[in-house]
Amino acid sequence: MAIPSRVHEYMMEHGLRYDVLSHPHSHSSMDTAHLARIPASSLAKSVVLEDDHGYLMAVLPSTQHVQLGILSRAMHRELRLASESELSELFGDCEAGAVPPLGAVYGMRMIVDESLADEDEIYFEAGDHEKIIQMSRSDFMTMMEMENAERMQFSGRQWRH
Fold it and tell me: Where is the signal peptide (predicted)?
């Protein structure tokens, strides 16, 4: 599967600088980081949340998880994870679990975790499980500003066994 055309068009229209990197097929964000040989903390993942007011795309490092309570209180919303069926409907041009952090392209509000600003390079899923997009921190944060993404700390370290 190629990068979804609307993702490619959005990035080209806005003059965003990026590279596309290929890697063996992956099954999770941590697997993607390992197979692509990149730091997992530099891989931004998109988590889609919802409530009665609609969807919210939360973007954070793959090494972290969304602290729903903190985010819900900060946003004055009762957020929960969107279902798999909703995700396949919303992101029909992407493979399941390979959602690019481009809420505007998919008609949803975004929030980005502050901890991504600590990374020099940021990578994210390009719509499938064999390609990632690489951007400089500056270009990624410019993209987040163009997306009108709010910035705050809402993540916590994932449990590792």
Answer: none
